[in-house]
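Feature request, filed as a ticket because there's no other form

It would be nice if the structure record came with a short human-readable summary line next to the tokens. Right now we just get the raw output. Example of a typical job, pasted below so the devs can see what we mean:
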Amino acid sequence: MILAGGGGTRLGGQDKPMLPVAGVPMLDRVLAAVEGAALRIVVGPPREGLPAGVRTVREEPPGAGPAAATAAALGLVPRAAAEEQAEAKEQAEAEEGPALVGLFAADLPYLTAEGVGVLVAAVGSHADGAVFVDGRGKRQLLCGVWRAGALRDAVERLGAPEGRSMRAVLDGLDVVEVEWTGSGPAPYFDCDTEEDLRRADRTGT
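Raw output as currently delivered:
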């Protein structure tokens, strides 16, 4: 699930996810990082040229924020047997494996399959999800992997998601905090300003 509905106000209102880093739009970079996913969902306005099989949805109302965007994306994620049959949850998970969903901003030029794999491994068998933390220990809430049922329950507990923060959605979940020690720049680096873009363009490949 890739949240690509921001207004890009600090970038002059440009369509930020489509801005290029080293010649490749940031949204394309994030989509490539999750190419192996069974389902790829982009939340935001209609865009041409997305890869085949990528599904799109719009948060309601448009611009309602990341919690509403997450709720819209989850509406396209099939419920696993473990969710549909709560009385057999443990058995269903043991048979099918936990259903995981990635939740990523669309302006992460350094996100790679390696970074996604680190998060998937960190969730393990008991946590609700895993997110990267930066050098100050701050959680990067739009660069994480979550157990689908736990994230869906969290959104439903929130009630109306319009205008709510991701912190409000994820409050109370069992979250593994992951420091990036892999190769290359931190996957959670996002581009909010022209300087961020210039920095990414200098180091992007």
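Something like this underneath would help us a lot:
The CA atoms of residues 136 and 158 lie 28 Å apart.
The longest strand covers residues 139-147.
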